Automatic annotation (TrEMBL):
Residues 1-63 form the HMA domain. This is Copper transport protein ATOX1. It holds the Pfam family HMA. It comes from Salarias fasciatus (Jewelled blenny). The keyword Metal-binding applies.
Length: 68
């Protein structure tokens, strides 16, 4: 599985909770959230565009930083 890094404009636990909810609904992904650095790492075989659109559902600004 490929590990992707995204920058998500998260400011609180509620924000990271929203990210967790949308990613859990997607299924078949492993992810880590670093709230202070506003980063989310996702391990998945899904297309980057699918991951990006899923993250945008949490209502935050999202930027793809590439693979890690």
């Amino acid at each position: 599985m490929t590990k992707h890094e995204f920058e998500v404009e998260m400011t609180c636990e509620g924000c990271s909770g929203a990210v967790t909810r949308v990613l859990n609904k997607l299924g078949d992904v492993k992810f880590e959230i670093d709230l202070p650095k506003k980063l989310v790492w996702i391990e998945s075989d899904r297309d980057v565009d699918v991951l990006l659109e899923t993250l945008k559902k949490c209502g935050k600004e999202v930027k793809y930083n590439g693979t890690k």
